[in-house]
Design a protein that fits this description.
Layout (H helix, E strand, L loop, with lengths): L3 H5 E7 H6 L3 E5 L10 H18 L8 E10 L17 E7 L1 H27 L6 H20 L2 E3 L9 E3 L1 E3 L3 E2 L8 E2 L2 H13 L9 H9 L5 H19 L10 H5 L2 H8 L5 H23 L6 H29 E8 L2 H11 L8 H13 L1 H4 L3 H14 L4 H20 L7 H13 L4 H23 L4 E2 L2 E2 L2 H13 L5 H13 L4 H27 L7 H10 L23 H13 L12 H8 L4 H4 L1 H12 L2 E3 L5 E3 L10 H5 L5 E4 L24 E4 L1 H7 L4 H11 L4 H13 L18 H7 L7 H19 L6
Parallel strand pairs: 2-4, 2-7, 3-10
Antiparallel strand pairs: 1-10, 3-4, 5-6, 8-9, 11-12, 13-14, 15-16
Helix pairs in contact: 3-8, 3-12, 4-5, 4-8, 4-12, 5-12, 7-8, 11-12, 13-18, 14-16, 14-18, 16-19, 17-18, 17-19, 17-21, 19-21, 20-22, 21-22, 22-24, 25-33, 27-33, 30-31, 30-32
């Protein structure tokens, strides 16, 4: 009894010929597949690999193959993937190629190049003086006819009905651009591969076609086509192939034909039979004559006779032709594929994702595009809004540095989109994401809903592209307030991508305001308020515990369920009944309530400032998240000045602005410094019992250039270095360093880098701290910093 796996896919090792030429089988490139992209190096490597396999055949006749990898295909028995489709005018078996179309396309081109070259060499040979017996000539002609038939089966297949050349279906076509049909008014072969194969069909029907002119004809018919550049690339790759094929006999890796003439075993390995005895004798005589003529010519004793020149010409032509024949035979029979055939497209992609480790898998966004094209219609797609929106999404993906990064961007984008659109938690699995995009799009009630679905995808892509990933402090051309821009940069550093689906919807409202200045101003203020509320919520929640403690579920619930107790429905676009986003003030209220709620109802259980401070000061905040520690310190240091005995107190507005995007991106506050170092040593032991040195009270911010200068020194020495760093003048800093040097302290690393030339009250306060540095001091300082941070951030939540 067959197992379930056997019913849904099969995996077979097949020769190139067996897979492609099977009677009634056509190859179909679905619309989400990328355009042909192989270049000269790829093509030459394929031929070189085949030549190496051919050389190995003479050593291991039963073992030599050229393996080109796995092809993943779906047997589209119901012809569901074919568009446009002329019913009953299609191959009986259509193999939709999920993976391997670049290789298969190149191999079909190689078959065409071989056929052209064999036809050209045969034409040259029959024009040459007949210097061999009829038996030899007939043997060669028979092999040419045999190979001509085999290669032509790789390129097209004749149907029972049809108008002249339209009886012949190209073996491979591409969705939306080509149509199999034996009626001239319905057939269309405009994609580069289908065009090339059909041009072959038309050319072959000429009376005595001159195959040496075929590529010139291809070049001519490519001019003026909508995809002229693509077609010319195909012609260029065909020329690369022909150049390589012409050079086969002189390739060091290629079997020496002169050696084959004298070796029946090699003849059998290459042709499946030995040469006729008369042919072997004739070729041996020609070889001997050629060798003698060559020696005489090289000695310069006399000219080669006319007959010798004709013999040489015949031999060169025959050598090229016969070499092409056994190379073609090897390519068709010994280029080997593992073909995985699935019964459904979804399962084919499951197999593809599982097997693919080094290739460039299609993203779920690429495989979604055909759904949109089908919905709109190919004739309207290029000028549609949907295409413009999808182009925006692809623009974001294309900025990734490589295929792996592009796949990662796509997966993360669609995880966020599923939450933003439907409030669903989506995995990064390629097949799952494909199904979500397809099924959700199909589930849209009408074309307007589908258009809004695609527009929302583009809005989220633009948010990731312009605001989230690239860090531009603007939405489109609209500059964001500095504190909102800071919040976005912090959320990115925190890895808090769960907030992007919510933030992106408020960002899209800015773009939707268009040229209405008043509406645009309101939308910017709303976005900034939401960004600050989300940031405050993240900081207050995360700083009070050592784990994320289900914070992501808060956003999933908001997107999928809303907050009914506040009159807020689901925030996911596809679930919002009236389509209107809640006011930013409502988002503040909802998040503040969630912060205060007890843990049994999914909250953080923070009822007051005092409770938050008590929980925060004991957390190893540096270990929890360095970006989080840095942001809390910047909030605490914002507009503070040094007070008595090392304290920091609130100063006048703009006295020391650190809670800005400029402060976040400068090197001045980039380094989170442990006051008591992580390594311990001469410091109070109570800071190292349970990693208390990672607490907020033991951290400060210093310029990046000064970080290494401070290093793991004793408290008395480090306090003086803090004083030098915060000195009012360079001379004052140099006096402090000189004092340390006189105490025997090595300050060579600090000299020249310790003076920042900026006002650093957070450092100056440490320099004036009167006590030893221990856990009690860390606890006291931590409470003071936590209170300062709370006072800055809690108002962002209306608390």
């Amino acid at each position: 009894m067959a197992s379930p796996a056997q019913k849904i896919f099969e995996a077979d090792s097949e020769s190139l010929y067996d897979f492609v030429s099977k009677n009634g089988r056509g190859l179909y490139i679905p619309p989400y597949q990328r355009d042909y992209a192989w270049d000269k190096a790829n093509v030459e490597r394929l031929i070189d690999d085949t030549v190496q396999g051919l050389g190995a055949l003479l050593k291991r006749p039963d073992e030599s193959i050229t393996f080109i990898g796995t092809i993943i295909a779906m047997n589209d028995a119901k012809k569901l993937t074919i568009s446009p489709l002329v019913k009953n005018q299609v191959y009986s078996q259509v193999m939709t190629i999920i993976d391997g179309q670049q290789r298969l396309t190149t191999l079909l081109m190689l078959c065409l190049a071989l056929l052209i070259e064999i036809e050209s060499e045969w034409a040259s040979l029959i024009k040459a003086k007949n210097i061999v017996s009829e038996e030899t000539k007939n043997w060669i002609e028979t092999r040419v006819n045999d190979m001509r038939g085999l290669l032509s089966q790789m390129l097209s297949e004749e149907q029972r009905n049809g108008d002249v050349e339209f009886r012949h279906f190209p073996k491979m076509i591409r969705a939306f651009r080509d149509t199999w049909s034996y009626e001239s008014e319905k057939a269309n072969y405009s994609s580069p591969i289908a065009w090339m194969l059909f041009e072959y069909v038309k050319f072959s029907r000429q009376e005595n076609p001159n195959w040496s002119r075929f590529l010139t004809e291809l070049q001519r018919t490519s001019v003026g086509a909508d995809n002229e550049a693509e077609r010319k690339h195909f012609v260029k790759m065909m020329k690369v192939m022909r150049t390589k094929l012409k050079a086969l006999p002189s390739d060091d890796e290629f079997p020496d034909f002169a050696m084959i003439v004298h070796d029946p075993e090699k003849q059998d390995a290459l042709f499946g039979e030995e040469f006729p005895e008369a042919m072997t004798e004739a070729l041996a005589q020609i070889l001997a004559k050629q060798s003698h003529a060559l020696m005489v010519d090289e000695a310069g004793d006399l000219d080669i006779e006319a007959d010798d020149k004709k013999t040489k010409e015949w031999w060169q032509s025959a050598t090229s032709l016969i070499s092409l024949l056994f190379f073609s035979r090897f390519a068709l029979e010994r280029i080997t594929l593992v073909v995985v055939t699935a019964t459904t497209e979804d399962f084919a992609f499951d197999v593809f994702e599982a097997l693919n480790t080094t290739g460039q898998p299609l993203t779920a966004l690429e495989t979604f595009t055909p759904k949109v094209v089908q919905s709109i219609g190919l004739q309207h797609y290029n000028s549609s809004e949907e295409k413009r929106q999808l182009d925006a999404a692809f623009s974001y993906l294309k900025k990734a540095s490589n295929a792996e990064a592009r796949q990662k961007r796509s997966a993360e984008l669609l995880v966020a989109f599923a939450l933003a659109e439907r409030g669903e938690k989506q995995s990064k699995n390629l097949a799952d994401q494909r199904r979500f995009m397809r099924d959700t799009f199909d589930g849209c009630g009408n074309s307007t809903d589908q258009k809004n679905f695609v527009r929302h995808l583009a809005d989220l892509s633009r948010f990731f592209d312009e605001v989230w990933v690239d860090g531009v402090p603007a939405v489109g051309s609209i500059k964001l307030p500095t504190d909102a821009a800071l919040c976005i940069r912090f959320l990115v550093a925190l890895g808090h991508t769960i907030t992007a689906p919510l933030l992106a919807q408020y960002a899209a409202a800015i773009s939707s305001a268009g040229q209405d200045a008043e509406q645009r101003k309101i939308a910017v203020e709303e976005f900034a308020t939401v960004a600050k509320a989300v940031t405050s919520f993240a900081v207050l929640w995360r700083a009070s515990r050592s784990t994320t403690d289900r914070i992501e579920q808060v956003y999933r619930d908001l997107m999928s369920k809303g907050a009914p107790e506040h009159g807020v429905g689901p925030l996911a676009r596809g679930l919002r009944e009236n389509g209107v986003l809640p006011k930013a003030s409502v988002i503040m209220q909802v998040l503040a309530a969630r912060l205060k709620a007890d843990r049994t109802s999914g909250g953080a259980n923070i009822s007051s400032k005092e409770e938050w401070i008590e929980k925060t000061v004991v957390q190893p905040i540096y270990f929890v998240n360095v970006a989080l520690a840095r942001f809390i310190l910047m909030a605490a240091f914002h507009d503070t000045v040094e007070g008595p005995n090392g304290a920091l107190i609130a100063g006048k507005p703009n006295s020391h602005p650190t809670l800005t995007i400029d402060a976040w991106t400068t090197d001045l506050y980039i380094s989170v410094e442990h006051i008591a170092p992580q390594s311990g040593g001469q410091w109070s032991s109570d800071l190292y019992v349970d990693d208390e040195y990672d607490r907020l009270g033991n951290l400060t911010l210093v310029p990046l250039s000064a970080n290494q200068s401070l290093s793991a020194r004793a408290w008395d020495h480090k306090r003086k270095l803090f004083a030098a760093l915060a000195a009012d003048t360079k001379q004052e800093a140099e006096l402090i360093l000189a004092e340390l040097k006189g105490m025997g302290v090595d300050v060579s690393k600090a000299a020249g880098r310790i003076h920042s030339e900026h006002y650093l009250p957070q450092v100056k306060a440490l320099a004036s701290y009167p006590n030893d540095w221990n856990l009690q001091v860390v606890d006291q300082r931590g409470r003071a910093l936590a209170e300062l941070a709370w006072n800055r951030l809690a108002p962002w939540l209306g608390m």
